[in-house]
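tool_call: predict_structure(chain=1)
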Amino acid sequence: MKKNRQGNKGSISLFFKGTLFAMYPLSDEYNLDYYYDTGEDIIRKSKDMGYNIKQQLIVYYGFLNKIERRKREKLPIYASDLDKATHALFALLRLRLIKNDDLNGYLIMPKRKKKKRKVNQASKIHLCQL
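tool_result:
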């Protein structure tokens, strides 16, 4: 079963070290602010659990490196791991430790517009009319 990766606002592709590791649909509910809020939420929850920022950074970078290595070596990646990697990436973006550039970060692709199909006038004529 193929997942729908195209929302009504387009899609977002996530990269780490130049490797595409996830694509998610963008919609009114799941927009860019939603993803940044998930990154901020994981920082806050980890802090409440007693982890300082240095410990959090070790986990975030370690997890993203693990996902990037598994993707590069064509090993399976579970959906729950992709969600955690997404949270880790946006936590690092929120902390401004990585920049959204061509190697790390995200790429937003707007929704594709379907081309209008041109109807040939000759095909409109029914065979009985000839």
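agent: Residues 18 and 103 are 4 Å apart (CA to CA). Proceeding to next step.
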